[in-house]
Design a protein that fits this description.
Blueprint: E1 3-14, H1 20-25, E2 27-37, H2 40-45, H3 54-67, H4 73-87, E3 93-100
Antiparallel strand pairs: 1-2, 2-3
Helix pairs in contact: 3-4
Amino acid sequence: MTDRILLSRIAVFAHHGLHPEEERLGQRFYVSLDVRLDLAPAGCADDWKQTVSYDRLAAIVLEVATGRRFALIEALAEVVAARILEAHPRVESLTEIGRAHV
């Protein structure tokens, strides 16, 4: 069975985008994650080492989003997804939703 960890609207101020104004001024981005994995082993054992930490997922989003500039939000999403999948082998799949504050 696949379970879900949902993180909603992780706020990040960054300088992503195609235009010079976006690089200069920056803007707030909101990233939501829907992470799929089997949480039964962690729940049955009451063992946090068998799950994925919510704070670590959020930290990866913040590290990637503030660590370099992306022209496309899709590129940011790809790097976040790759980092999460690499850091957490228990994760079966994930979906991200990114949105700039407009």
